[in-house]
Specification:
This protein is α/β, with parallel strands linked by helices. The protein is 25% helix and 26% strand. The protein is built from ten helices and 21 strands. The strands form four sheets. Strands 1, 2, 3, 4, 5, 19, 20 and 21 form an eight-stranded mixed β-sheet that branches. Strands 6-9-10-11-12-13-14-15 form an eight-stranded parallel β-sheet. Strand 20 and strand 21 form a beta hairpin. The longest helix has 16 residues.
Length: 383
């Protein structure tokens, strides 16, 4: 990682998080974006990107179970977080929520302590934490171990609503917890998403009224949309402000369903997640999730029964898939990987945008949207 003082990056195309700009120079000072100018200032060190390069905010991934051969559940420590973040950073993702898959109470507490310590130490890429479960509906548990599914208790609620220095996303089944608990978590600043849920549309809407704000991996492991029972999917599509992550690997969600979601929600409410497992950014092709063996088979991660088990995916691939599978404009695809997820966890003022005051977390993409360079806080990261 190389650091510089006040310097600039000039590009023929700059995506700000909301719009494309032509022939702009991004000025960086003290790790933040200081200005966006038509020309580089005289006598200022400036990296000039090739004409076919596009400069965008670094990708923001709110669901990262692992990467670089590491599963967060098995390496709940700063070293494990570092390896996971590094694997995703090489693919253009500069901010992640490490995600714990239905851990024990001890693991949940350890994950919170580890993430807080990593953030306090300034570990690059770690911007919060995602606890996916264990307060889920067992009939929609997917790959989550049955023995790990638990009921939310008052003591759980007390420490989950306690002090945490960064965004803490909680995925739970809203029909399995009291609405008052959702309200308390939201009041404490927790970001509550529905996932692994059999909730009706009415239950989902009630949870949204109580303070829930989104849905985890839309369509997957949740009640589906039908004419007279719209389910969680219907609630997500119909609600005016709810956001949702979607796994766009070509396996989890049919392209037609993903196109319908984008048509209903737009790139302002629908965002891309990787749901990445240890195989992402790694050469390994199998791993253990507890006692369950997970294999990479034809691009899909599955257990012995063929159940999908997370994804072999990084956000750069998801962005390219959005363009290819959804016939999505590049600006919309990038927005779903940058500003929309950042705003969804309350960090739109810091990351996910190229504008003055935001952190200079950036990715340069070639004409096919492959990352070719990454900066965090204005520092060029090693290739």
């Amino acid at each position: 990682m190389t650091r510089q003082g006040r310097h600039a990056i000039a590009a023929s195309t700059v995506f700000t998080g909301t719009e494309m700009l032509r022939d702009r120079t991004v000025v960086i000072e003290a790790g933040n974006i200081a200005a966006i100018l038509p020309q580089p200032p005289e006598a200022m060190p400036c990296v000039r990107l090739a004409k076919d390069r596009l400069l965008a905010p670094g990708f923001v991934d709110l669901q990262v179970n692992g990467g670089g051969g590491v599963l967060f559940n098995d390496s709940i420590d700063e070293a494990g977080l570092g390896r996971i973040a590094t694997a995703h950073r090489s693919r253009g993702t500069t901010s992640i929520l490490p995600t714990l898959i239905s851990g024990t109470r001890a693991q949940l507490r350890q994950a919170m302590e580890t993430a807080a310590a990593a953030i306090a130490a300034g570990q690059p890429g770690i911007v919060g934490l995602h606890l996916e479960g264990p307060f889920l509906n067992p009939v929609r548990r997917g790959i989550h171990p049955a023995a790990a599914i638990a009921a939310l208790t008052d003591p759980d609620l007390a420490w989950l609503a306690g002090v945490f220095p960064a965004p803490l996303l909680l995925t739970l089944a809203p029909e399995m917890v009291p609405m008052a608990a959702i309200a308390r978590l939201a009041a404490a600043g927790r970001i509550v998403f529905a996932g692994h849920t059999e909730a009706s549309a009415e239950q989902s809407m009630a949870a949204l009224d109580a303070g829930m704000t989104g849905f985890t991996h839309l369509f997957n492991a949740m009640s589906q949309l039908s004419a007279r029972a719209p389910g969680a999917v219907g609630a997500a599509l119909a609600h005016p402000t709810a956001r949702a992550g979607i796994i766009l690997d070509g396996h989890h969600v049919h392209p037609a369903a993903a196109r319908a979601a984008r048509a209903a929600m737009g790139s302002e409410r629908l965002f891309l997640v990787s749901d990445a497992m240890p195989t992402a950014g790694s050469s390994i092709e199998e791993f253990q999730l507890g006692a369950t063996r997970i294999r990479l088979l034809d691009g899909r991660l599955v257990d012995e029964a063929g159940t999908l088990a997370g994804a072999h995916l990084t956000l750069d691939v998801a962005v390219r898939n959005a363009v290819r599978l959804l016939d999505c404009p590049v600006a919309d695809a990038l927005r779903m990987a940058t500003s929309t997820p950042a705003i969804s966890i309350g960090l739109g003022h810091t990351i996910g945008h190229i504008r003055p005051g935001c952190r200079a977390d950036l990715v340069a993409l070639d004409g096919d949207l492959h990352p070719v360079a990454v900066w965090i806080s204005g520092a060029r990261m090693a290739d």
